[in-house]
Amino acid sequence: MNVIIDYKVGNLHNLKNALDFSGVENHLVSHPDELKEADRILLPGVGAFGPAMEHLRNSGMLEALQEKVQAGTPLLGICLGAQLLMDESDEDGYRVGLGWIPGKVKRFQHELKIPQIGWNQVSQQQKDPLFNNVADEMHFYFVHSYHLNPENSEHVLGLSNYGYDFAAVVCKDNLWGVQF
Question: Domain 2-178 belongs to what topology?
Fold first, then answer.
């Protein structure tokens, strides 16, 4: 079963509608017990890093997600969901993330217009099933002020550019994150 984590932030209904339209079975889950049957997990997000982490902790979902990830269940973080996979963020000061992919979430340099909104090319850096049927240098739509900055370049699957190159797609083991 494909599950979409409802942690009270983000664009989860748009994601659910897109999956429904595509014929992909999915379920919104907001309680840790609902994760038991998950075969694949989607962690969407539009919002702020701190409140998102706080809700995951307070709802008990953090521990349930940790168990599923340790058991090898594939998880895809989208936008804020991808950022949460990292160790920390400098959004609103210092915030601790899930720590599943070593690295930081950093604000774009001040001389750049923030948020960055628009279509950017993503240059594939490695082969990965996530890119099946996706052309290299394909355009994706971005809306963000912060970007992924993994410690290890082998965790970077795709790069984009907004004033400078940044990680747009990351992966480690059974975890994937996309900034778009």
Answer: Rossmann fold (3.40.50)
26 in Cβ contact with 59 (< 8 Å)? no
**Type of residue found at 65:** L
Task: Please state the domain extents for the chain.
Answer: 2-178
pTM of the predicted model as reported, rounded to 2 decimal places: 0.95
Alpha carbon separation from 30 to 8, 45, 98, 99, 109 (Å, rounded): 9, 14, 18, 21, 35
Range 48-66 burial, b when 16+ CB lie within 10 A, else e: bbeebbbbbeebebbebbe
What six digits make up the tokens of 33?
A: 């017990």
Answer yes or no: are the C-beta atoms of 111 and 164 closer than 8 Å. Answer: no
Distance CA 95, CA 35 (A): 25
Tell me how far apart the alpha carbons of residues 149 and 101 are, in angstroms, rounded to a whole number: 10
* pLDDT string in tens for the chain (180-residue length): 999 999 887 778 899 999 999 999 999 999 999 999 999 999 998 889 999 999 999 999 999 999 999 999 999 999 999 999 999 999 988 999 999 999 999 999 989 999 999 999 999 999 999 999 999 999 999 999 999 999 999 999 999 999 999 999 999 999 999 999
Number of C-beta neighbours around residue 155 at 10 A: 23
